[in-house]
Design brief:
34% strand, alpha+beta, 3 helices, single chain, 11-stranded mixed β-sheet
Length: 237
């Protein structure tokens, strides 16, 4: 894969907004597989005929198995302001997920503490006073049910690594296709977690920027009428 295979949603002098495919790393890792940051830097170098390397700020992340909308900063000033907005809770991130099973409650707020274990690259729910534990919070809503699976919308309040995956699995309804936190015997498709919406203020102009992208048209996503829920998973306008 190269940058030519990526879908670019928006670009100006300060921002680059793209769709990250599932199972593509955000930045270079030990796998050596093509990653978003390297591919997009190559895009900037070629498009603008830049000598050497191009600056591109990584301001947020998606887990490798997760696809969807991402924003990158083309200047250090934009990167600094977007990172500050994320820290201050001023960037809205919404996701769609297909769960293995149906949650007990149709809508709920999930709160817990998470700790990352680097030796296994896993995250676990732990007691609040555990050393290294970080507070995690999200809101979810069940949109539809089909064949013991459920389509849910998720709004992240905090952005911890593997957060949605761990909290959904903690309810007994892991994300379909999640090989790390779900049922390996049912992981016969890409993980069904998709970053469907990103809303934030432009770091320079202050204009509200909203980007929405659909999950891939493959099973089990295609078993749900995503169009009919689009308004439910986006803010009122």
């Amino acid at each position: 894969m190269t940058y030519k295979d990526l879908q670019i949603l928006f670009e100006d002098n300060h921002l680059l907004v793209v769709v990250k495919p599932a199972d593509i790393p955000v930045q270079a890792d030990e796998s050596g597989d093509p990653d978003m940051l390297t591919m997009l830097k190559a895009y900037l170098v070629e498009k603008y005929n830049k000598p050497g390397d191009a600056y591109l700020g990584l301001v947020h992340r998606l887990d490798r198995p997760t696809g969807g909308v991402m924003v990158f900063a083309k200047t250090s000033k934009a990167a600094e302001r977007i990172c500050a907005a994320i820290r201050n809770g001023e960037v809205d991130k919404k996701y769609l997920a297909v769960l293995d099973g149906v949650p007990r409650y149709k809508a709920d707020k999930l709160r817990c503490y998470l700790k990352k274990f680097s030796n296994t690259n896993t995250v676990k729910m732990v007691p609040a006073l555990t050393e290294g534990a970080k507070y995690a919070e999200l809101d979810y809503k069940v949109l539809a049910e089909k064949q013991n699976c459920s389509l849910v919308s998720v709004k992240l309040i905090t952005g911890r690594g593997h957060q949605i995956r761990v909290q959904m699995a903690g309810m007994g309804t892991p994300i379909v296709g999640d090989r790390k936190y779900g049922n390996p015997e049912k992981a016969n498709c890409p993980m069904c977690l998709w970053a469907t919406e990103l809303r934030f203020a432009h770091p320079i102009s202050g204009k509200t920027m909203v980007f929405r992208v659909y999950p891939p048209e493959i099973a089990p996503w295609t078993g749900f009428n995503i169009d009919s829920f689009l308004r439910i998973v986006t803010p009122d306008e």
